[in-house]
Amino acid sequence: MTDTRRRVKVYTLNEDRQWDDRGTGHVSSGYVERLKGTSLLVRAESDGSLLLESKINPNTAYQKQQDTLIVWSEAENYDLALSFQEKAGCDEIWEKICQVQGKDPSVDITQEVVDESEEERFDDMSSPGLELPPCELNRLEDLAELVASSLPSPLRREKLALAVENEGYIRKLLELFRVCEDLENLEGLHHLYEVIKGIFLLNRTALFEVMFSEECIMDVIGCLEFDPSLPQPRRHRDFLTKTARFKEVIPISDPELRQKIHQTYRVQYIQDMVLPTPSVFEENMLSTLHSFIFFNKVEIVGMLQDDEKFLTDLFAQLTDEATEDDKRHQLVNFLKEFCAFSQTLQPQNRDAFFKTLSNIGILPALEVILGMDDVQVRGAATDIFSYLVEYNPSMVREFVMQESQQNDDDILLINLIIEHMICDTDPELGGAVQLMGLLRTLVDPENMLATVNKTEKTEFLSFFYKHCMHVLSAPLLANTTEEKPSKDDFQTSQLLALILELLTFCVEHHTYHIKNYIINKDILRRVLVLTASQHAFLALCALRFMRRIIGLKDEFYNRYIMRNFLFEPVVKAFLSNGSRYNLMNSAIIEMFEYVRVEDVKSLTAHIVENYWKALEDVDYVQTFKGLKLRYEQQRESMRSILRNHRFRRDARTLEDEEEMWFNTDEDDLEDGEAVVPPSDKLKSEEDLMDPISKFMERKKYSEEKEVLGKSGLSGRQSPSFKLSFSGSTKSTLSSPPSSASLNPGSPGSPGSPGSGSRNSPPAAPVPATKVSSSCVPATNYELVSPPFSCCH
After folding, report:
1. Which has the minimum average pLDDT: 202-216, 329-343, 773-787?
2. What is the rounded average pLDDT of the residues 497-514?
3. String of b and e for 628-655 (b: at least 16 CB within 10 Å)?
4. What is the helix (H) or strand (E) element at residue 569, kind and residue range?
5. Alpha carbon distance 115, 509 (integer Å)
6. Which of 404, 408, 311, 402 is nearest to 365 (CA)?
7. Across the strands, what pairs with 27?
8. In angstroms, rounded to a whole number, what is the distance separating the alpha carbons of residues 103 and 99?
9. Quick check: 520 pLDDT over 50?
10. What proportion of the chain, given as a percentage, has pLDDT over 70?
C-alpha cells in the first residue's frame, strides 16, 4: 500500500458558502476494501480518529489551487478541501489522484462535471481548443459575446479559462482598459466590464492570482466600475486610494504580511461592494473567490501570531497609561479584528492563539480598556471579551479568582462587566443583553471542569456569591424596598428582567449557593414586589422566578415561602388582573395547578388555609377547587393515621437527630445537595403535612397561650402552623412544620433578616408540660420537630 503521510487541514463548505474547519491530521492514500478502490484517508493528529475517508472516483473533478490546496465535490452540495502544510505533500497526493483518474499531474483540474446534451458535447469534443479573438478595441464586442456564450457550458468554461490563462490575456485586457479610459471610450469600457465579470465566474484560482496581484488589482476594480446598467460609473478606486487608509497601529516589519493584508482587504471589497449580487445560478461560480479570502485570513493570523515582538508591543501600548485615547482606540479595534480573524483557524491553532494572548496579558489589558469612558472602545473590548468567554470560560474564571486575592471587589473584571451591564445607556439595552449572556456562560456549571484535587464549580461559585452576587442584585434590592417598584420606567424594567433571568438560571443550576442567598437576603419577597409593575413582561419574570423555585419541590424553599406568606403578592396580582384572559392569568393559574398536580402537600395546605376565601369563587378553571379537594383528602388521611395509631415517635430520637443537624458544617455540603435536616429526611409524605393542625388547635388556643406564658420562650403571635393531639394522657408536643430558624445570616438556614416581621407567621410555642430542658435549645432559634406529636 502506498502511504504518503502529510500534515493537512480538512475543510467542508457549509450552506452559507463558508469553509468549516474539520480538524488537522495526516493524509495518506491507499486501497480500501470496503470502498472497493483507492481512497484518501486523513487521521487526526490528536487521537488518530478518522477525519476523512474518501474514495478517488474516476469521474470526480479534483482541483488544485495555490500549490497547497486540493478541492472537490463528493455530492451535489458537499464540497471538501485539503489544505497542505507543505507543497511537496500536496504534489504527492495530486499525483496519486491523477494516477487513479489517468490524468497528467501538470493540470490543475482533472475534469469537469458535464451536464450538456450529447450534441453539445460532440461539438465541443470535435474542437481541440477555444480560440480567443485578438485583444483589440474593435474586437471587444466579439470577446464579450464569446465569454457570455461559454459560461453556461462547463466544458466551454474550462476551455475559455485555459485560453485566457495560457495566452496571458488578462494583462492584455487591462492594458486595453487603460487605453479605453484615456480615450473615454464608454462602449469599450462597458464590454470590458462584461468580460472581466465573466472571468470572475470562471472560478479559477490561477486567474485570481493574476487578477489580484499588486500590479493588476486596481485596474480590475476599474473595469468593474463601468457597469452598463448604471447611468454613471462607480468610484471604487477613489475610495480605496483616497478614503480608505491602512493604519499600522503597530509597525509591521514583514513586507509579505503587509502585502497579504492589502490584498485581502481589496479582494474582500471586490466581493462585498464591487461585484454585483450573484444570481442563484452564479452563486456557486464564486466559491473559489470565497476560498481565496478564507485562506488568506488564515495565513494572516498565523503570520501575526508568530511575530512575538508585534504582540508584545501591542499589549504594552494597550496597558500603558501614557498611550493617548485615540491611539488606544485604534489598538483595541485592531485587536478586535484580529480575534475575529482567528475564528477561521482550526481548533488546535485557535487554542494556541488564545493561549498566546492569555500569556501576553489580554485579560488585564481588557480591564484597563473597560475602565475607559469611550463607549466605542468599551464596546470593542466587550466583543473581545466575548471571544475569550465563548472559547475558554475556564481561563476567564481562573483569572478573576486569582485577581480577587489582590484587588478589591469594585475593580474585579467580572464586577466591571456587571456594572457595564447595569449602566448600559442604550434604550434597548443591546450591550446589557450581550453581557448578561457572557455572565450566564461564566456561571454555567455545565462548562466547569473537575479535577482530582479541586472542583472549579465549588471554587468559582463560592467566589461569585461572595464577591459578585451583591453587585448583580443591587438594582433589584434598591428598587423593591416598598410594596411597588420605586422606579418603573421601561429601561429599568428591562434591566431588572435581565437580572431576574440570570437569577432564575442560578436557581435551576446552583441549588445550594443560590438557596442560601435567596433565604438569607429574602430575595423572593423582593422579587415578588415586581408583580405590581405596570410592565407585564417584568411581572411575568418575577412569576417565572417563583415558579422555578416551586418546581424544585425543595421543602426548605417551601417553608421559606409559607413562613413569609409569599403567595400573598401572587394572589393579589391574580385578583388585580381580574377577568382578563392574558399571560399573567395563565402563568398564575399554572403555578397553582403545578402545586395541585404534583401534590406538594405543604404548599397545598398553606394555600387553602390562607387564601381559600379569596379564590373559592374562581370557577372557570377547576384548579382551586382541586386544591381544596387535595386538602380535604390530606386531612382525611391524617385522621385515619391517627385513629390507627400508626405513628409513635420517641422524643429522644428526635433530639438526637436535631443535634446531628445543628452540628453539621455547611462547608461539608457540596453544591447540589438538598439542605434538609435528618429528621425531615425520615418523614413520610404524611408526616410533612399538618393541615389538620389549625382545625384541632382552635379549640385549645386559649390553653396554649397559657402554656406559652409558662414556658418563658418568646414567640410570634398567633400560632398558625402548630399541630397538637391529645391521647390518653394530657401531655403534648407541638411544633411548626418548618425547619429550624437559625441566627439571621447563618448559611444554610431558612431564616432571613426579616423573619421576625409582623408579616411572618407565628412560631409554634413549646408547651412546658412534659418537655425536659434538653428539648429546648437556646432562645434564638426554634425547636425542629415533625409536624405531629403522639402521646404514649
Report:
1. 773-787
2. 94
3. bebbeebbebbeeebeeeeeebebeebb
4. helix 568-577
5. 57
6. 311
7. 6, 42
8. 6
9. yes
10. 76
Q: Cα–Cα distance between 439 and 738 in angstroms, integer?
A: 35
Cell numbers describing residue 102: 489517468
Name the strand (E) or helix (H) holding 80: strand 78-84
Q: How far is CA 580 from CA 567, 585, 674, in A?
A: 20, 7, 39
Mean pLDDT of 700-720: 38
Residues 641-692 have pLDDT tens digits of 887 755 455 555 555 555 554 454 444 444 444 444 433 433 333 443 343 4
Question: In Å, how far are 35, 82, 174, 216 from 171, measured between CA atoms?
Answer: 46, 31, 5, 8
Q: Which residues contact residue 698 at a Cβ distance below 8 angstroms, ignoring those fewer than 6 apart?
A: none
Q: Exposure of 611 by Cβ count < 10 A (0-12 exposed, 13-18 middle, 19+ buried)?
A: buried
**In DSSP terms, which residues pair with 63 in a beta bridge?**
71, 109
Could you give phi then psi for residue 73, rounded to 5 degrees?
Answer: -115, 130
C-alpha cell at 748: 444554610
Q: Tell me, letter by letter, the H, E, C secondary structure of 612-632.
A: HHHHCCCCCCCHHHHHHHHHH
Q: Lowest-pLDDT range, 130-134, 464-468, 561-565, 600-604?
A: 130-134
**DSSP code at position 409:** G
786 CB neighbour count, 10 Å cutoff: 22
Q: CB within 8 A of 209, min separation 6: which ones? A: 66
Which pLDDT score, from 0 to 100, does residue 631 have?
A: 93
* Secondary element (H or E) of residue 329: helix 325-342
For 557: left if phi > 0, alpha if psi spans -120 to 50, otherwise beta; the answer is alpha
Report how far residue 264's alpha carbon sits from residue 130's, in angstroms, rounded to the nearest whole number: 32
The cell for 758 is 409582623
Tell the burial category of 172 from Cβ atoms under 10 Å away from its Cβ (0-12, 13-18, 19+): middle
